[in-house]
Specification:
Distance between the termini: 27 Å
CATH topology: Jelly Rolls
Radius of gyration: 15 Å
Strand content: 35-45%
Structural class: mainly beta
Largest sheet: 7 strands, antiparallel
């Protein structure tokens, strides 16, 4: 029997009012972080952050819609088929465009085993 999981994003548990889809946990991925972020049109309240403490670098990919990511004061457009990697110690803040933004975010710390954050676990998971 093959070991795999297939699940539609619409069937996955989401936190933060539906904007933070727990794709990693839903698929049983344990080697890297993976979430889907859904932002409404012109949303600008995504928190500015870095991962200097955890050393986690992130990769962003727009799945639908568009927006931009402010990376240390530089605007980089997020649109379908464009990958953006941001190093752990660099501040970043994502903004949705006029049609909203659905993006895949992948993360991991180079040379370290992945340790999932509690907020990415499924409700009731221990």
């Amino acid at each position: 029997m093959s070991d795999y999981t297939a699940k539609n994003i619409s069937e996955m548990e989401a936190g933060f009012g539906g904007g933070f889809v727990k794709a990693r946990a839903e698929l049983g991925v344990t080697s890297f972080g993976m979430q889907v972020i859904r932002m409404p049109a012109d949303y600008g309240d995504y928190p500015e952050h870095d991962h200097a403490e955890s050393r986690q670098e992130e990769v962003y990919l727009a799945l639908e819609g568009s927006g931009w990511i402010d990376i240390a004061g530089e605007r980089v457009d997020l649109e379908e088929d464009v990958f953006v990697r941001v190093a752990a110690d660099v501040k970043r803040k994502v903004h949705a465009g006029p049609n909203g933004l659905k993006m895949l975010v992948l993360g991991g710390s180079p040379g370290e085993a992945y340790a999932p954050s509690a907020m990415t676990e499924l409700e009731g998971a221990a």
